[in-house]
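Why predict the complex rather than its parts? Because the way molecules touch one another can change local conformation, and only a joint prediction can capture that. The input here totals 705 residues.
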Amino acid sequence: MEITTHIHEERCVLELNGRLDANWSEHVGQAIETAIRSGQHHLDLDFGKIHYVSSAGLRILIKYFKQLKSARGSLRIVRPTADALEILNLSGMSSLLVHHPSPTPAPPTSPAIASATATATAPATATAPTPPREWQHEGVAMAAYELDPQARLTLELVGHPENFGQGSLQAAESTVVRCASDVIAVGLGAFGRHADDTRTRFGESLAVAGTALSMPTDGSSLPDYQVTEASLVPELSLLYGLVARGAFRHLLRFEAAASPRGTLGLSSLLNAALENTATGAAGFVILAESAGLVGATLRQSPALAGGRSPWEFPAIRDWLSFTTERTDERSVILITGFAVRTPSPATAPFLRPLGSTASPLPAHCHAAVFPYRPLPKGRLDLMESVTSLLGTDSAQTVLHLMSDDRPFEGLGETDLMRGACWVGPLDDPSTPRAN
Amino acid sequence: MLEVVDLLKTFNPGTPNEVRALRSVTLRLEPSSFLIIIGTNGSGKSTLLNAVAGTFLVDTGTITLAGQNITRWPEHRRARLIGRVFQNPFSGTAPSMSIAENLALAARRGQPRGFGWTLNRRLREELRERIRSLNMGLENRLDNAIGSLSGGQRQALTLIMASWLKPELLLLDEHTAALDPKSADQVIRLTHEIIERDRLTTLMVTHSMQQAVHLGDRIIMMHKGQILHDLQGPERARVRPEDLLRRFDDVRRREQLDPAVAELLQQRYV
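Output of the joint prediction:
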């Protein structure tokens, strides 16, 4: 991101050139802050070379718009590109932020800055409150709330994960997934509309509750994210992945502090969730306090492999980063994933064994890691929880969770302390209905 | 301007203790730029400083400073162009000589001294003014032996001595690592002031990510004798300490990815 500052007609103009995403929004915020601290209270952000704005970028714009307004100053966006203007229109922010010097009226937008909570479709998880079913699972206190007894998720397979090992994934063959509030998804994805834009950035991605997060592989150090804002619904380009639409049937709360291990393994939680929902296949979202993550992240975009297999040693070091020790203990993690006890031949390539070698559970889970914050107890609303999480903190990384069952030096699997797990039985069109 | 091209240095070649300390290091430093060098232990950062200072001669490659090829110059000859502050506060000064004598030596560096050099009143006043800005009360202790000062005071004086003649290049080798936090802060503040005021071209080695982020206009991260990352411009401007720590972690993880982990990833990553 290049930022050039100059004064024009008594306004401080910041010319921006680049992507206004999670990786650069803080930098732009600092430039705005510097201008304000130098006494400039009327700022124009020249968006003539901005073609992408993520929710992280929108958050920064609104923050300083409000700050300057309260100081009787102003912040305006001038010369927005068509791409940027569309995002601002859809998010309902253009009428507030975009300055049109010509008599042409501004395009109609919603009058207020609507938060995702206020405007997104209400999650289909709300039902009349009933007392939870409580039991012990491996010494861990569990409580299950029934959200909607009829709720189901319908699975869609996107792309061909087997092409990853052959180095033959193509950006042009990616599928754009609209991540509405009833969608959960995991896969290798990127934000952007064109193959030229996404090619260098495909990385671990997830979507839940009208929010999508993606770990770019272009050298960015932070995951980018998009949150539903007014008519703006996140769109994720997936090279491959699992996508499901529908609603969750149960919410499980778990507390492992008093259990013999003091923690709960991810596969153990998923097995408990499958048993509780009496299904062999489920999509799930977990919001939990981590007791140590085991996983891997991509270092470079697989769309750049050009036929080279990432599995060769030592070249694999350029492709993947493995945790090598448990990481992010005491962080808050948002996991989205799928577990299928007996996957169909079409679904199997998307899943890998999780848990012990003796009884592995085929699954595919991605986790976004956030700074620690206490999680509320009792019944939680998924949309509200996710919106609240992203409203105050930025994700630090996104990784693919996996089990490390190497003899002696294996790290085991991801462990959790306490949290919430939303579960929905999964209809896999490629296999007979599981229940 | 400093330009190092394709520097190679191997210690103990052909022995079991062979260390390839610098591997084709190439770096161009514009005048008045302030470069921070970070890296793990043994990454080659101090070796690079020593190579530039002339502590040893490199195996191959060239070093050009202020338009002069100094690759084969001995250390004492390079000292006319280069000021240097070491990690150890006791290595940059003569402990039995007074503060004034130490400073006078720095003021006359590169000039013939013989038996005739004197610490006249005019020079004493100049020295006093220079060290008054330290706010350490040393201006009234010009005749005290420098060995009686604390580490922080000595390092501050060493920094003043190294930069007195506005060298073409200032080398700072973890110069606050041996100081207590308060003294380190003082010396860092002084470092920033001197470099800004005199627009000195500077190479500084540090283990502190805070210093790396808050000082300088460019950061290079070294690993195993090579430059792994070179952050400048907007990338440098937005970098945070946690980003640098993440990069170190990334290096460690990369090295720990052995064939067994590679096999695991092939089985478990999708």
